[in-house]
Amino acid sequence: QWSICLAAVLLVPVACILLNFLNQQESEVVKNKLDIFLQNFDKVQKSFPNQDEQIWKKSRIMLQKHINMTVHSEPSILMFAAAWNANETMHCLTDRIAEAYASAFNSKFLKIEGSSKKFLNSDKVKLDLDNQLTSWFGAGSKSAVIHHFQDLPPPSTLLFYKYCDHENAAFKDVSLLITVLVDEEKLDPNLSFSLLEERVYDFLVTKFSISSQTGQYNNLDIDKFSGLWSRIAHAILPVLPEKDIEKNGCKHQ
């Protein structure tokens, strides 16, 4: 009995040392991921000098916070909006941010073009998107971009309840970037974030022809869209044109 007690006394500090070592190892892994992300994110920022400082601050904070977590309670969702004169810039900028985030996990990002699904059957689009996202995130990849969200068949967007529903999201340790091209020639660079949110919301309600009447379960009415909006519009960031990118396309610098 004495030998058992002695063994127990000796094992306690050993267990504490082992636990401390494992915690340090985990912290080091997170730090390395964060360093990789911040290094690549800074490169992206330098490549887009015409953007508002706030879009870098907000996106960096949200994505950095997500990488720092060891247990994730919900995915990181960012929405970007641009007018026609910044379409190419928005496309390029969001790809580069998603790539920077994915690089922290030594993976690539998934790119989905909403415009390519504009005239397709909504149920087919919904199933296709679901298969792509589940396959991608299920395989361990951490980042995806949905380009031109406004061009998706309206009912198909209800799929994003599955991926953006806070603590009920199917995958919580991932980032999802969504872009919206509003029907305007250019955005006012002095437009506040709150007014931008209202403008994008109103644009999508009109674009999707959303009715105030409650529809069938697979139709996008105002109640369903408002619920979806509260899940995907955590941060709406304006993208301004970069002349070189609009003229010559996206290049890595």
From TrEMBL:
Keywords: Glycoprotein, Membrane, Nucleus, Phosphoprotein, Signal, Transmembrane, Transmembrane helix
Domain of life from the UniProt record: Eukaryota
Signal peptide: 1-27
Molecular function GO labels: ATPase activator activity
GO biological process terms held by the UniProt record: membrane organization
Predominant place of localization: membrane
Localization of this protein: Endomembrane system; Nucleus envelope
Any one GO CC term of the record: membrane
Location of the Torsin-1A-interacting protein 1/2 AAA+ activator domain: 24-250
Topology term for the membrane: Single-pass membrane protein
Similarity-based family: Belongs to the TOR1AIP family.
Name listed for the protein in its UniProt record: Torsin-1A-interacting protein 1/2 AAA+ activator domain-containing protein
Organism in which the protein naturally occurs: Chiloscyllium punctatum (Brownbanded bambooshark)
